[in-house]
Amino acid sequence: MMKEVSVMDATNPVPPSKHPKAKVNAQDRTKRRMSVWLMMPSFILLLIFFITPMALTVLFSFTNLSLTGASASALHFIGFQNFVTMFKDPQLARSIWNTIIFVVLSAVIGQCFFGFLIAFMMRGKNTAFRRIVGLIIIAAWVTPEVVVGFCWVSFLGDNGTLNMIAHTLLGAKPVAWLYTFPMTAVVIANIWRGTAFSMMVFQTALDDIPQEVEEAAYMDGATRWQVVTHITIPMVRGTIATNMMLVTLQTLGVFTLIYTMTGGGPGNSTSTLPVFMYKQAFVSYQLGYGTAISLVLLAIGAIASILYMRILKVKL
């Protein structure tokens, strides 16, 4: 016989607070609140050390902020005057051009190419060999930029190591490398220092490629060059895009190395945007003008990142 449902059960359903779905929703809300509280320290640090400086940079670029003079004690909003002055300054175009040359030669071509080449050549080698070569290359990367700059000044100086070797072996006269080929000097120095980062990134990506895929291509008659261009490189295309973007952004901000080696000279031949910004902000004491230049540098970095993603068709 079917159990009859009492009038008491029909008229008194399960309270909403004791319903299983209500308990699940309450647990979800508790977890979300707990997640927010656990992430709050990170949000606070991000706000203090990233968002606030960025907001102040944008704000100060529209002011007459200065370290000396009347404007140092009387901050005023001047609109787009800093940007108008900047785009009328012929030094801006020269600095942008120097920055593009420096980034393309030392980061996009130099660090990415040599980093991939070294990682590819070390692939499959024994662990001891990889460790020795890796430590030698990484030693340059962990060395501070100012130390690297002085090392290259002593190597390329008039009485430096390179001229001594050239004179001893070839009888050549000393060459003022930093004066005759300043951009080439800073590009080579930055490649020497930064290649280790690209090497480590590519080494990890190449080690993740299944060997069975390449072995199958060799069995089908593919040459080594065909395997590299049609299998290896396409399989690490995402890593290439990420690495190119990272080294580009890193190289855009290189200041200490260039300023230590050449000071932006001779003349303005190696004055990149960071050097130009430093001179305007801390040599001419025009902080508002310097922050306006920094926004141009930020815009170039954003444009470069978008171009990499579009050209290489990679979604991060």
Automatic annotation (TrEMBL):
Keywords: Cell membrane, Membrane, Transmembrane, Transmembrane helix, Transport. It is found in: Cell membrane. Residues 97-308 form the ABC transmembrane type-1 domain. This is ABC transmembrane type-1 domain-containing protein. Pfam families: BPD_transp_1. It comes from the Bacteria. PROSITE patterns: ABC_TM1. Residues 1-25 are annotated as: Disordered. It comes from Lacticaseibacillus manihotivorans DSM 13343 = JCM 12514. InterPro entries: MetI-like, MetI-like_sf. One of its GO terms (cellular component) is plasma membrane. One of its GO terms (biological process) is transmembrane transport. It is a multi-pass membrane protein. The keyword Metal-binding does not apply. Belongs to the binding-protein-dependent transport system permease family. The chain crosses the membrane at residues 36-62, 96-120, 132-155, 175-192, 240-262, 282-308.
